[in-house]
Write a structure and sequence with these properties.
The structure holds three protein chains of three kinds.
Chain A: E1 2-4, H1 20-45, H2 47-78, E2 86-96, E3 99-107, H3 109-132, H4 139-158, H5 162-180, H6 187-220, H7 235-245, H8 250-268, H9 277-280, H10 286-295, H11 300-307, H12 309-314, H13 316-338, H14 343-363, H15 367-394, H16 412-426, H17 432-446, H18 453-479, H19 506-520, H20 523-535, H21 551-572, H22 577-580, H23 588-597, H24 604-607, H25 612-637, H26 650-656, H27 661-672, H28 675-684, H29 689-711, H30 716-739
Antiparallel strand pairs in A: 1-2, 2-3
Chain B: H1 12-34, H2 41-60, E1 66-69, E2 74-75, H3 78-104, H4 112-128, H5 132-150, H6 157-188, H7 193-198, H8 206-227, H9 235-242, H10 245-269, H11 274-297, H12 302-329, H13 337-357, E3 361-362, E4 365-366, H14 376-379, H15 381-395, H16 401-415, H17 419-445, H18 460-478, H19 480-488, E5 493-495
Parallel strand pairs in B: 1-5
Antiparallel strand pairs in B: 1-2, 3-4
Helix pairs in contact in B: 1-2, 1-4, 2-3, 3-4, 3-10, 3-13, 3-18, 4-5, 4-10, 5-6, 5-10, 6-8, 6-9, 8-10, 9-10, 9-12, 10-12, 10-13, 11-12, 11-17, 12-13, 12-16, 12-17, 13-15, 13-16, 13-18, 15-17, 15-18, 16-17, 16-18
Chain C: H1 6-26, H2 30-56, H3 64-102
Helix pairs in contact in C: 1-2, 2-3
The chains are: A mainly alpha, B mainly alpha, C mainly alpha.
Chain lengths: 740, 499, 115
């Protein structure tokens, strides 16, 4: 193993950094252990004891990783700011004449921040899952996937070169696919898993093309690089030399590199137009939603942008695109959240919206603020999901909020922790969300790096109001009010076992129906699947009594609640208040992460033009938005479920249907059916990825396929004829070449 | 060339693997003749031992210098050794699961094994020879055995139809190949590939140039048929579907490896004519990838899907071949690394996939519609799980050899400036993920709806095949470095001359 | 080449090859198709022989080089004849098996697999 420490260029020999491998290998060992011994242990010790042991060994490696991460973080923080970068290489994975890809880990503040989130929040969610999944038939399989996911995620954030990051990237995608489709007997879940898989492929290809472009660029401009350096894809080669290498290839390449990487980020982090897979991904078990689809995997896109921020800084257009897409997604998803009745769907759209915030921060040059929001979001969104899981368990796996009400009486611990998370996401000080969100909004207002930043701020501000609003709606419908609505009969004919996806609009359902199903399954199979699906429902009944969940489930809730309560204030050192009031409390997160995500191309001093008076006004505005949002919707839902929401109507219904986003396109496609609409549908509206890549492309290329298939007549003489035609074509070409 | 009429000295070390494999077939046939109609265990054992011996010999003489021998007809260089080893491995894994499958299919013919081994001999000859006539001979040895194997099931019309189609079209294609060789002979006066390059150092008149280019084209047609490039691919789906599954798996892997090996070597010597073949093969590559993938999308039979997928994969390899051609013309690539790597990866995933498909047989009948695979997960979890690996690898999903292979090809194509090919490759990989996913769904997720699943019992041989192929796919990804280093190693060619 | 120029041989060979190709495309009986393929192979043989003669003529008579160039073409023909014989054996076997199964060998009826 070798160490490289850039900054001062000295070689570091502190053996503690060897331990970084342990973070990665521990969950991998856990995975192998689970995969190899699950059945045997269950048989040997009996179901209950065996599962307790398996659960313990599932949590252990992740917790161990957390401990090691803390140790490394302490050691790294001990170094001075410019040498906080250690790279430890194990062996050469690929060593060609023109490219060397070692198996190397990068230990710097950014990767350790992510490690701490992944292992810290990850171990809490693992613990929670031991309770949540306790009675599931496939308990060991679940933890097998879960540990594997952690291993890949750590590889993603710790890998020091793009191929390793890409392996992690694909690996977490694979685990996400497996876990969304965990209850694969249900055809809806299999469909959701496939959708996630296919939509993510688009992003992945963007990412892969970006990697290739970078390789090509760096390999063909060796002049600027150190002699004999062929690790073209390692970050410590890519990033420091970006300013010298990229511009020599012209503005097109300079812009294409960050945009291609951003396409990958858009897919993985569920931004518009590729966000469609995330709400459907709620089909997986709730711990999966909490870990993968809220706290860790979906933030990989933000991580990637922050990691490669040098490329983004070089391309103002790319920055603007990132900020624009982020802001738009934040607003769009926040409005859609109002129209959801499924508690997990609300949280899903909320996640999409918050991820939009993070990209907004990155787009205006505040990469540190973006990562700060990743951190606080991991606390409170994981808490929200786990809390919703507790609610769902308490309510016999019914996920429709219209059937809830007054639950604070029955599940007080869940209620108390959820309130903390609610105030955190709404942005009420001193809860965690306030600090990061305020930082993002103020960065958006003051940035000098994009045009019209105030517009971005306005969008962010409106979104803050909406966020407080839809979260209040969710809390009011679930925990408050006097009426216990499930006692008056259950709304919504369809209530699945945790993997609801009650399709929130008819068009979408119809759309989905003619999409992947028919392609994969015949009618008989489909009928059989439906039967099977209906057979295993157990549903909410009017005489149901909700019960508080077990300790292994509420303990993680409590820990996360503490983090959501105080985490933001501590990490930010009470900034911006502290510095506005003249006190010099350090912004811990900022100072820790600065070497990794601080602006390197732009002048950090000139990037943000701050003014004290406006800053006070912005803080007031964002607190005001949060309070208004909460107050307004508390009033609206104080008397329980309004008549208009028993069946969603009007604007709200439209919002719930993603502003007819899917529906319009389906109508165009189905009703008018003309070629123009068809082409429009396919080409222009990338938003209907659903239609294009799950269904449309299948139809389009399928049509070509059918056409070509006709030529396969089965007749030998025809085959020979085609061959002869081929020969003649080739010969003609050769004659053309030689006589030219 | 030798200086007298005395025969050239022969370096038997280099020919030994070929001879061992060939001899194994002879011994197998003798056993079959001595004890007809009894069980095949002795033949299977002999065949496996013989193949293992050949592999061991090959590995034992790995560092033996690269020598041009047997009157310069054979050249056993690094690539040839690796591909010979690969062909042996393909044959070995195929033989492992064949017996169980053939019994279930009620085709317990002992001749099967010698024929398979001889066919492998043909492919190995193609991989080592530098003489066009010998390549032709190897191709015929490979093909004639395969014609018989494709028609092994003499009671089934589909099998017979497959054999006849393969035979007629194969013979038709070899006529083109042979005519092409005769034209090159007309231009150069020899059938040695080296002279093809040497002749460009002398002034050429117009008719000679015409002969060279026409000969090149016709030879390419012959190879294009064997590796199934569009539009010379039409036989593939029908033959793959009709032939017994183990034969199909072998055919899809070994025949392609042999033909691609000969093609790469031939093009290496035909570099002066690359102004003609680079655009020609680029066009064929795009056509092949696209047609293969598009038609695969609308297939219902697993064997046909895999047949079209193998066509598409021939297109991917062809991209690598063209990229290598361009790079070596510019002097920046010494070995066809990506071609060989992809052939290795492709062979294991193909043999493995067909091995799993062969489970869909019961009581003499084989049904390979997609939904005939439903429920395989319950009946045979390990092969079904391996099926996921094979499909993931075929689709080029990371963590598998298929991914790294495509990556290498993609990189080579970009390095060579073949951007269009690189993009076509990328787009096609995305399309292909779709039908591989269908196979995975059919195997793992869907429950049998109409009829009770009809599967053969997975025996130890089949499980071993699946495991070997699955492990190879992961090993090639995670331990890619040794393989790549072996492929890239520079080497010196000696000519074994007379005294 | 006493009197008959090289191009005449080549023309005849190309003609034979073309006739063979067309025959493959238009005939329905597999045996006749196979005969047409044989014709194509023999066209190649003819051009091998013609080239062998043509290439060896200008070289010194009886020299080793002449012998080698000449023999390459001659050997090729022997090779091809042997290969063709093997193909005939296998091909007729396959056709016989089909005839036993279906009692007719119309090639256009052999299209149960398609698409």
């Amino acid at each position: 193993m070798e160490y490289i420490s850039t900054g001062h260029g000295e070689t570091l020999t502190n053996p503690v950094f060897h331990w970084a491998w342990m973070i990665l290998l521990a969950p991998l060992a856990g995975f192998l252990f689970q995969a190899a011994l699950d059945k045997k242990i269950e048989q040997a010790l009996g179901k209950a004891a065996g599962r307790r042991l398996l659960g313990f060994f599932a949590v252990l490696p992740v917790a161990l990783g957390f401990v090691v991460s803390v140790v490394l973080a302490v050691n790294l923080a001990g170094l001075d700011e410019h040498s906080r970068l250690v790279i430890t290489a194990w062996f050469n994975w690929i060593d060609l004449q023109t490219l060397r890809v070692p198996f190397e880990l990068r230990i710097d503040p950014l990767s350790l921040t992510m490690c701490l989130i992944v292992t810290g929040v990850g171990s809490l969610i693992h613990l929670y899952a031991t309770g949540y999944m306790a009675d599931d038939r496939d308990y060991p399989r679940f933890f097998t996937y879960f540990n594997l996911f952690i291993a890949f995620m750590l590889m993603l954030v710790m890998g020091n070169n793009l191929p390793l990051v890409f392996i992690g990237w694909e690996g977490v995608g694979l685990c996400s696919y497996l876990l969304i489709g965990f209850w694969y007997e249900d055809i809806e879940n299999a469909k959701a898993a496939n959708k996630a898989f296919i939509v993510n492929r688009i992003g992945d290809w963007g990412f892969a093309l970006g990697i290739f472009l970078l390789y090509w660029v760096y390999a063909s401009s060796q002049a600027a690089l150190p002699l004999n350096e062929t690790r073209y894809l390692s970050f410590d080669v890519l990033l420091p030399f970006a300013q010298q290498v990229l511009p020599e290839f012209g503005p097109l390449v300079v812009t294409a590199v960050p945009l291609l990487l951003f396409v990958g980020a858009v897919g993985k982090s569920a931004q518009w137009p590729l966000y469609l897979w995330l709400p459907d991904a709620m089909a997986g078990p709730t711990p999966v939603s909490a870990l993968i689809h809220a706290a860790t995997m979906v933030t990989a896109g933000v991580y990637l942008v922050a990691r490669t921020h040098v490329f983004f800084e070089l391309a103002p257009i790319a920055m603007a695109v990132v900020a624009g897409i982020g802001a738009f997604t934040a607003l769009f998803a926040a409005t859609v959240a109002f129209g959801q009745t499924d508690i997990k769907k609300v949280l899903a759209y909320s996640t999409v919206s918050q991820l939009g915030y993070m990209f907004l921060a990155c787009g205006v040059g505040a990469f540190g603020a973006g990562m700060f929001h990743v951190t606080t979001h991991a606390f409170f969104k994981a808490l929200l999901f786990l809390g919703s899981g507790a609610v769902i368990v308490a309510m016999a796996h019914n996920q429709d909020m219209r059937n809830y009400g007054n639950l604070r009486k029955y599940i007080p611990i869940t209620y108390a922790t959820m309130v903390v998370a609610w105030l955190a996401i709404a942005g009420i000080p001193p809860f965690a969300g306030f600090w990061s969100k305020d930082e993002i909004l103020s960065a958006a207002f003051f940035t000098q790096l994009v045009q019209a930043p105030q517009l971005l701020w306005l969008i962010g501000w409106i979104t803050a109001f909406l966020t407080a609003g839809y979260m209040t709606r969710m809390m009011m419908l679930t925990f408050f009010g006097q009426e216990e609505r499930w006692r008056k009969g259950v709304v919504g004919a369809h209530a699945h076992h945790d993997h609801a996806s009650t399709h929130d609009n008819a068009a979408h359902a119809a759309h989905a129906d003619f999409s992947n199903t028919e392609f994969f399954l015949s009618d008989e199979e489909l009928a059989a699947e439906r039967e099977h699906e209906e057979a295993h429902h157990h549903d909410l009944t009017p005489d149901h009594e909700p019960k508080e969940v077990s300790v292994s489930m509420w303990f993680p809730l409590a820990v996360l609640a503490v983090l959501s309560l105080a985490g933001g204030a501590v990490l930010s050192g009470l900034n911006p208040f502290a510095h506005l009031l003249g006190a010099h409390l350090p912004h811990l997160f900022e100072e820790w992460n600065h070497p990794s995500v601080g602006l390197s191309v732009f002048d950090p001093e000139g990037a943000f033009r701050k003014s004290v008076a406006i800053e006070w006004a912005l803080i007031a505005a964002s607190i005001g938005a949060a309070i208004c949002g909460i107050a307004f919707f508390v009033r609206r839902y104080a008397k329980g479920l309004p008549e208009s929401e028993v069946e969603l109507q009007g604007v709200q219904k439209l919002a719930g249907e993603q502003w007819l986003y899917d529906k319009t396109m389906v109508r165009l496609f189905v009703d008018i059916g003309g070629k123009f609409a068809n082409a429009f549908y396919r080409i222009f509206d990338a938003g209907v990825i659903d239609g294009i890549f799950v269904n449309g492309s299948a139809k389009l290329v399928g049509a070509f396929g059918l056409l070509l298939r006709r030529t396969q007549t089965g007749l030998v003489r025809f085959y020979a004829f085609i061959m002869a035609v081929g020969v003649i074509a080739l010969l003609s070409y050769v004659i053309y070449v030689t006589t030219r | 060339m030798q200086t007298g009429l005395t025969p050239a000295p022969i370096d038997w070390v280099l020919l030994m693997p070929l001879l061992i494999v060939f001899g194994t077939g002879v011994v197998g046939m003798c056993i079959e003749m001595l004890r007809p109609r009894s069980n095949n265990n002795a033949i299977v054992a002999t065949t496996l031992l013989g193949l293992a011996a050949a592999a061991a010999y090959l590995i034992g003489t790995w560092e033996y210098p690269t020598i041009h021998t047997f009157g310069e007809l054979f050249l056993s260089d690094r690539v040839a050794k690796i591909l010979q080893l690969l062909i042996i491995a393909i044959t070995f894994t195929t033989v492992l699961y064949s017996e169980g499958y053939l019994r279930e299919r009620r085709l317990p013919f002992g001749e099967y094994y010698p024929l398979l081994v001889w066919s492998a001999t043909g492919a190995m000859i193609m991989a080592t020879s530098t003489n066009l006539l010998i390549v032709f001979l190897g191709l015929e040895v490979l093909s004639i055995s395969l014609y018989i194997l494709a028609g092994l099931s003499n009671r089934e019309q589909q099998s017979q139809e497959a054999a006849l189609k393969y035979f007629l079209l194969g013979a038709f294609a070899s006529a083109f190949l042979l005519y092409g060789i005769s034209l090159l002979y007309g231009a150069t006066g020899t059938t040695q590939m080296e002279d093809l390059r040497a002749i460009w150092n002398t002034p050429l008149d117009k008719p000679t140039v015409g002969l060279l280019y026409a000969g090149l084209t016709l030879i390419l047609v012959g190879f294009a048929f064997k590796v199934a490039l569009v539009p010379f691919h039409m036989w593939t789906p029908d033959v793959y579907q009709g032939a017994p599954t183990s034969v199909t798996g072998f055919m899809a892997a070994a025949a392609k490896v042999g033909a691609f090996a000969a093609l790469v070597r031939f093009l290496d010597y035909a570099t002066p004519m690359s102004d003609a073949w680079v655009p020609m093969l680029s066009a064929l590559a795009i056509l092949t990838m696209t047609v293969g993938n598009l038609v695969a999308l609308v297939q219902k039979d697993v064997k046909r899907i895999l047949a079209y997928s193998s066509i598409a994969h021939a297109g991917y390899v062809l991209v690598a071949v063209v990229a290598y051609g361009v790079l070596s013309r510019e002097g920046s690539a010494a070995q066809p690394v990506s071609v060989v790597y992809y052939l290795i990866a492709y062979s294991f995933m193909t043999v493995g996939a067909f091995a799993v498909v062969s489970l869909a047989t019961r009581g003499g009948r084989e049904r390979t519609e997609l939904n005939d695979l439903n429920g395989l997960w319950e009946r045979a979890p390990l092969p079904a799980a391996m099926m996921i690996v094979f499909m993931a690898s075929l689709a080029g999903i990371p963590l598998t050899a298929g991914f790294l292979g495509k990556l290498l090809i993609f990189r080579d194509a970009l390095d060579a400036g073949l951007v269009v090919l690189a993009i076509a490759l990328a787009v096609n990989s995305v399309i292909s993920a779709y039908y591989y996913l269908r196979i995975v769904l059919a195997t793992v997720v869907q429950k049998p709806a109409l009829h009770a699943p009809r599967f053969a019992n997975p025996n130890a041989g089949l499980v071993a095949t699946c495991l070997v192929c699955g492990l190879a796919i992961f090993a090639l990804f995670f331990a890619a470095q040794p393989v790549l280093r072996e492929l890239e190693a520079p080497q010196e060619v000696f000519v074994h001359r007379g005294p | 080449m006493e009197g008959i120029p090289l191009y005449a041989y080549l023309l005849l060979s190309a003609l034979l090859f073309a006739i063979g190709t067309v025959g493959v495309l238009i005939k329905r009986n597999p045996i006749i198709i196979f005969m047409c393929i044989e014709l194509m192979l023999n066209a190649a043989n003819l051009s091998f022989l013609a080239f062998a003669k043509y290439h060896s003529a200008p070289l010194a008579a009886g020299s080793l080089e002449q012998w080698q160039v000449h023999m390459t073409g001659q050997m090729a023909v022997v090779f091809v004849m042997a290969v063709a014989a093997a193909e005939v054996a296998v091909g007729l076997g396959i056709i016989m098996a089909i005839f036993r199964l279906r009692h007719d060998v119309d090639i256009d009826e052999m299209s149960t697999m398609r698409g």
